């Protein structure tokens, strides 16, 4: 599970205008239609082609938990691509992104700083250029550690330095012990 990547995906999925298919058969039929055949879906899900065909015909109704998770993830990854693209574009150009986090956060600053790591609950609106950077990195396949770094850099500028207006320069903002993380577009 990737906390930051899944959080960004969940934020984009809130823009969907129709719910994704729920049943295993409907999900499998959707993927077969997207991939134009059962062989590619079987390879994607790491199951046999015959198993895919049986789900499509509703001969199998309840997948194993690991297959159900893979199936749902692959469907949501491909569901409503135009709406997904529009939501990402809006966040990156005009809307920005909202981050709601409850975590142990602190920063490294020049000598004399007294701000130790402590539990903080922040709800911060990140401007569009930070949203674009975060969403572009996710789309390029950045791992969770890289997304965490980008988010920390954005919080450093927007929250801890008040958009650059606060005196003093922070070297680094760090997240540890994340209890809650949610993104909103």
Can you describe what's shown?
With 185 residues, the chain is α+β, with helices and mostly antiparallel strands. It has eight helices and three strands; from the N terminus they run ααααααββααβ. It has a three-stranded antiparallel sheet with strand order 2-1-3.
Helix-strand topology string: HHHHHHEEHHE
Please report which band the strand proportion falls in: under 5%, 5-15%, 15-25%, 25-35%, 35-45% or over 45%.
15-25%
Helix content: 40-55%
Q: Report the principal-axis shape.
A: elongated
Counted by DSSP, the helix tally is 8
Mean pLDDT: 87
Distance between the termini: 21 Å
What's the number of extended β-strand segments? 3
Compute the CA-based radius of gyration.
20 Å
Q: Which class best fits the helix and strand makeup?
A: alpha+beta
Indicate the low-confidence ranges by residue numbers.
none
Strand order of the largest sheet: 2-1-3
The profile of the biggest β sheet is: 3 strands, antiparallel
């Amino acid at each position: 599970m990737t906390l930051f990547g899944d959080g960004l995906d969940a934020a984009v999925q809130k823009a969907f205008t129709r719910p994704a298919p729920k049943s295993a058969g409907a999900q499998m039929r959707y993927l077969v239609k997207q991939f134009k055949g059962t062989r590619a879906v079987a390879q994607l899900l790491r199951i046999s082609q015959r198993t895919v065909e049986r789900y499509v015909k509703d001969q199998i109704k309840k997948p194993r938990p690991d297959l159900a998770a893979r199936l749902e993830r692959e469907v949501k990854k491909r569901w409503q691509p135009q709406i997904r693209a529009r939501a990402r574009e809006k966040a990156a150009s005009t809307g920005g992104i909202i981050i709601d986090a409850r975590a142990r956060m602190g920063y490294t600053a020049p000598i004399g700083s007294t701000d130790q790591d402590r539990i903080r609950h922040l709800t911060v609106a990140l401007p569009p250029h930070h949203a674009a950077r975060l969403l572009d990195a996710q789309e390029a396949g950045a791992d969770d550690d890289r997304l965490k770094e980008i988010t920390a850099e954005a919080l450093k500028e927007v929250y801890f330095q008040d958009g650059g207006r606060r005196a003093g320069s922070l070297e680094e903002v760090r997240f540890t012990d994340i209890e809650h993380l949610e993104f909103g577009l």
